[in-house]
Amino acid sequence: MTCHPYSERVARCAGLMKAAGLDVLLLAKPANMAYLTGDGRLCAYAMTTNEGKVALGVPSTDVEDVKRLACFDRLDGFEDEAHDFKHFEIQEGSVGLEYTFLTHSMMGMLTHPHGKPEKVVAKDCTPILSALRIAKEDGEIERIRAAAGVAVTGMVAAVKALKPGLTESQVAAEAEYAMRQTGADEFWRTYVCSGPRTNIAHGLPTQRRVQKGDLVMIDLHPIVNGYSADICRTVCIGKPTAEQQAAYDLYLKAQQRTIAGVKTGVGMVELDEILHGIIRDGGHGDHLFGPTMHGVGIEFEEAPLPPGHAFFHGEKAPPPLATNVVIAVGNCGLYTGPWGVRVEDTVVVKPDGPQILTDFVRQLEF
Asked: 63: phi > 0 → left, psi -120 to 50 → alpha, else beta; which?
């Protein structure tokens, strides 16, 4: 495969590493490995030096597959990472590890004396990878756009299939089947909840059967060619109550005005306050919680994140949004107790305003 744009990404990564005083990165998170090498899989690692050299360690069964898919300077069947430290002549200095991804046991393995030279000290490299991935290249935007198109296809299928008697799981199946047929390779979790379960922030589908008069919340995240998109719609099986319609209209107004405020240089806190402020002024301030937006890319939820949520994920507070950052607006809904409503769309940040990628009809009653 061609190594563009991976060689350029590795070069940028090397510059950030030098600025942070890191000699080498040892990556195990599939999304980070995929971003820098073109391939990310479990039970593997990527080692990147601040001179721009990359080694991959994968299961011996996968070596030929990775040769075809990835860009690297060195590839070995997985044994341990210690021999790569020797190969790159790194016997002291600092190694960057993904603190927010590694479990305690994984961290122990990678920092064990047998796993690295004694004089190599571990540091967190999460901010470096987030800084690299936060603004998307044109090719990444096109992949996210393709994923958004597939997400819309899934939403069309799910809404069309809705009728009393279907289980939430069957609604999810309709969406996922349509998305597989139109290009989805995989999914982040599909959320479908109905009736009183729409008061759950992110309800996984169950065997509950949809009933006439229910609100149904559908949230889809297909993966197409390594990239994702995020769309959520709430619809009613029949005619919504006046209270439900009023709450939906308020949330949609808040979400759309927030999207209208998206442009290069705006802050996540500023956007978050637009959405919260409209909901608060509409009398539902106590019914909205959590982060209302997040970044989208290789993962359906990634940097940038609003400060409070960023700290929870081990990220730094985000800088003002740069051109070609992709965010999902509408991550948490309006939850009244008996039911909830939510609308979410994937949006590209541009100098002159937002570019909406998931442009499917937004209405409660179908």
From this structure: alpha
- Categorize the per-residue pLDDT at 312 as very low, low, confident or very high, splitting at 50, 70 and 90: low
Fold of the domain built from segment(s) 6-133? Creatine Amidinohydrolase; Chain A, domain 1 (3.40.350)
Superfamily of domain 138-356: Creatinase/methionine aminopeptidase superfamily (3.90.230.10)
Of 137 and 113, the one with more pLDDT: 137
Q: Which class for 288: exposed (0-12), middle (13-18), buried (19 or more C-beta within 10 A)?
A: buried
| CA-wise closest residue to 182 among 225, 219, 138 | 225
* Residue type, position 154, single letter: G
State if pTM tops 0.90: yes
Determine the residue type at 171: V
**For position 116, what pLDDT does the model report?**
86
CA distances from 204 to 127, 164, 219, 245 (A): 30, 19, 9, 24
Domain ranges of the chain: 6-133, 138-356
Q: What is the CA radius of gyration of the chain?
A: 22
Q: What's the pLDDT tens digit per position in 26-43?
A: 999 999 999 999 999 988
